Amino acid sequence: MKKTQAVGIDLGTTYSSLAVLNTHGQPVTIPNADGELSTPSVVYFENGEVVVGTEALRNAVAAPDRVIQHAKRYLGNPQKYWEIDGQRHTPLEVSSLILRKLLKDAEPQLGKIREAVITVPALFTETQRQQTLDAGHAAGLERIQMINEPVAAALCHVLGDEGLAFVELAVDQKILVFDLGGGTLDLAVVDYRADNVRVVASGGNPLLGGLDWTQILIDLAAGRFLEETGIDPRQHRGALQYLSLEAEQAKRSLSARDRAAVSVQHRNQLKTYQIGKKGFELASAELLQKCEQATSQLLSGNSLGWAHIGTVLVTGGASRMPMVRELLQKMSGRTLNRTLSPDQSIAHGAASYAGMLLSGDNRAQEIFSGEASRRLAAIQQQSVNARPLGVMVRDHKAKKRVPCFLIRANTPLPTAVTHVFGTAGPDQKRIRVRIVEGGIGDQSHVEVGECTITNLPENLPEGSRVEVTLSYDVQARINVTAREVQSGQQASAELRRPDNLTRNSAKSETGMATPQIPKSPRDDQHALPQRASGEQTAPEPAHARADGALRAKPDRPRRQASEADRRPRPKRRRAQGLNAFDEDLLRAMSDATDAPPVFLCHRCGKELETNGDCADCGSLPEQPAENKTSQKSPRASVDVLEDEFWDADIEK
Question: Can you give the pTM of this predicted structure?
Fold first, then answer.
């Protein structure tokens, strides 16, 4: 069997690729069985046979009802599926087939691939990240790490696309990564300082990509055809697929030429239309505006201006369009850095990250030369979460539940926040907490699951304290833990996803059940270690305390630290934006299983009044020292009566 390799996979909406680091630490793309560096993310089903890639794309016109494309855009959507021959195929399944194709085609050169780093858009939800993991496991991978796509591009730039030994950035700088792929726009501001790559902020638009520009050309040509014939080719699968391929080719041609032809074929009629670059740009004005808005929001929302940006790094296949590059150059007022391969840089960055993870392992000496191993080990990387994370609380006046975000967006990872909740009634047996992430655009939030805290002790009085910890790990995946404070008894926490991707909980070292991903029998062998900011990290026990965390009993004597407590831990912070205090939150509910959280004073443990103050000790909700600057609270956008809420961020 061949030795382990540092493998990175770019699972794209339109094209996918696989790369590996060679002995000298250089990222190399592995061609597929057809000799192509990029594999179309297309799957064709025929008589029980599954075909992936270019051959599947060729059959898209002749058999459009048997071809599935752009599955990545539908990951996390439980209602989306494609039915072929009476069998339903989900986006997760289609993604696994694409990954299996990449792995199988690379095996003749690399041997059996058991572990890899897979890239995901920065704005992917927890459910979408979990489905990406599930697709990788279904494809045969035993150990998987994830990295956000713009971060992978930044690593590719910092480490040098042509090899670690040849390129090193000479000066500290902030890099804006603009990654416009086939299905998503990913943005990140990355701070590079002396071999440290730290993401300052991330954003973008998960539903904006090259496909939308292709659709512009489809609509232009179809509109002309409809005017002339009275027939809309978009209403017929075969005609639409033919037109889609024509439009995609025309889009690429318009990146190099002033005019391109788009042919429409339907009902024995074939018409060809010439589309000019200027007309294409005018028709794409709204899409360009979305690019500009997403970029401006990322900078202004994080108190950054173009003067702070040293390099504008563009990547992604759709970034080749001149109109996109001209927009960025006009916005930034500087020359763009186009040194990265738009098609290969994401996979190359993922392979580099895989090498970084392996650099602290004994196997590194077997894989890389001494210089490559040293350079990989020297680079430190830290990312942020793109979406805020919190729980749903009940607004009594509006008679509805609203999100209360405990972890803000763009918080360095890993991070954890603990808050003390109170039981809503006497002898309560369980508490249900609905976990939410911040939404995109008009969405205020996205529900990612429910945490059910069970096994509470007998005869607990009303208001008994329960510590609930929400955390993002280094890959922006969510973990939930809990502990009943009075007795010290550990409670179980089960994350149940609305899309039926329920995972069986497994007991951790602390005796608490935590969400688990599917594991292979060999899952613990040759594992890719997790690393962030130069440290390996492990999930923190719910009972562990840290400065700034909400305390149930400040004068409680410290117990002897166990070996588990000495492990490196994620940064822990006090909950922010806990300002939804009303009568319904502070009174017992008849249905204890549906009880919303009850907020307690961080000093004395008494119930807080409706304005957020503690009548017993006079304490006010504290704000973390790191957040003393005035910022808009994530709760400010909630449609409630402002005089009923005390906003720590705004008042500060």
Answer: 0.74
